[in-house]
Design goal:
Oligomer: single chain
Strand content: 15-25%
Number of helices: 4
Largest sheet: 3 strands, antiparallel
Distance between the termini: 115 Å
Helix content: 55-70%
Shape: elongated
Order of helices and strands: HHEEHEH
């Protein structure tokens, strides 16, 4: 009799463990995937901001070469992203600011999650606008044009 009860208990534990392990694995995968998603969002935004600002300040006196910038930005993003796949880089060159848009495809097969994280198309877009204003340089140029200099007068 004790052997029969013992066998039934083992069977129940096995069935319960199967459901618990399955749910645990699904939860673990969801947490890991969410972590990778957040990582890629942060990396996309930080690399985009850093590269755009760096490129503008590096090319202050020179011509802005859009194609070289796009190529370097794509290369760095592809190297750093885990789950996003880079779709496009678009640059708008304004009078006082540059706008850079990056579109990444989110590879998710569940439509509910795709709508939450990336809209209907699963395309996540990040935009950065960096002002190209040099107040100190402009003041110096304006002062030089007026003939003013910054000479300190000696005290008597």
């Amino acid at each position: 009799m004790k052997e029969m009860l013992h066998m039934k208990k083992e069977g129940y534990y096995t069935v319960e463990a199967t459901f618990i392990i399955t749910i645990g694995i699904v939860v673990l995968v969801a947490v890991l995937y969410t972590g990778l998603y957040v990582h890629d969002r942060v990396v996309t935004e930080s690399v985009l901001q850093r590269q755009t600002t760096r490129w503008i300040h590096q090319t202050e006196g020179k011509k802005w070469d859009e194609e070289v910038f796009k190529k370097k930005l794509k290369k760095e993003l592809k190297k750093r992203l885990f789950i996003f796949s880079l779709q496009y880089v678009d640059v708008e060159d304004g009078l006082t600011k540059k706008t850079v848009k990056v579109g990444c495809h989110l590879p998710v097969s569940f439509s509910f999650i795709k709508r939450i994280w990336g809209g209907e198309s699963g395309l996540k877009e990040e935009t950065v606008r960096v002002a190209e204003i040099w107040p100190a340089k402009w003041k110096w140029d304006a002062d030089a044009a007026r003939g003013e200099t910054d000479k300190k007068k000696g005290s008597g």
